[in-house]
């Protein structure tokens, strides 16, 4: 879209806000497309050289970094940077921010899947073009890639010791930084052989600084303004917003990403909105990733399986029909919207009870913290964020049907997963209590969409 002017009202992905002088123009953002984490790239080069010179069999980049950082000036500089703690870090605030993820765990997870991944990642051309070249976004591999992302998110939010230098989450973040350098290095090598393999003029350097800023924004800002507001009157406080953004400001530092854009929640919100304007646009690759995502989640085992109608209803509810039509998602029937409405009732009521009863809130936070850690971080297939999805010339993810689905061609209640049936039951049982707030249109009122004064969300 053309560069907005100050005072313009903008609606993108079912979200409306006013453009101000605090927002970032395309000219301000564009140079970041050709910039990247140079220290991370230099550290990777040294690690690769050390492997060759010493015939090291280990492929664990972090292990080689750990063993050699004391004797190599570049690795020492990298090690010192990632283990230093900026003066603006407040560990008490970060500990509170970590709790935010678990306090609203159900809403955060579904919001990330249906908005953060379906809308933001799949509709950001530079990001998605890298993703489909790493091979892990085929239908059968996608679940593993999503679990790897959630593993990192759980590791960095598990407890304060986990995110501090030397902690499990901190180490995982350093591994991710080295993985990003590896992906970038490999893609650039392939571009030297086949310049048409990845269009660096259009998309920039692979895994560039703009992509990194966008990713941090997606993790810390989207839950506040693009996801949780769509679920109901979830009582998120301004303090919680500040705390959660502080977590990812520190993680941005460890990842070698500029942190100034996340100094305050107001600046971070402007970055998020600027990214919506300048970076979100669908392509054929976007439609491939969206299709594979639906195929993946509709073929999950047992109680985790949901129907394509539920995914489409939730995506349209959160992101709006415009984007979802561009992604070619189906237009589901009323029953699927009722199921998603039931989910909204569940997470809204849960959040409100937690706000009224602090002891119950502590139980919920501890429950999700423990169960998610045990189920995802402790799983047998957990990752060390090694470079296993290696880009190759001629290798690019396309649309892939999962196979014959047990619900193929089945619609309505018969084709729904167990969770969807539960959500319909919740809606039926709780309709009288929250009916007033659910009779409104799923479009947010103008005053709650982007003006930022209040953090009281309504459907």
TrEMBL record:
Q: Which residues form a coiled coil?
A: none
What is the protein's species of origin? Aspergillus cavernicola
Cross-referenced Pfam families:
MPAB_Lcp_cat
Q: Cross-referenced PANTHER family, in alphabetical order? A: ER-BOUND OXYGENASE MPAB_MPAB'_RUBBER OXYGENASE CATALYTIC DOMAIN-CONTAINING PROTEIN (PTHR37539:SF1), SECRETED PROTEIN-RELATED (PTHR37539)
Q: What is this protein called?
A: Transcriptional regulator
- Locate the ER-bound oxygenase mpaB/mpaB'/Rubber oxygenase catalytic domain: which residues? 103-347
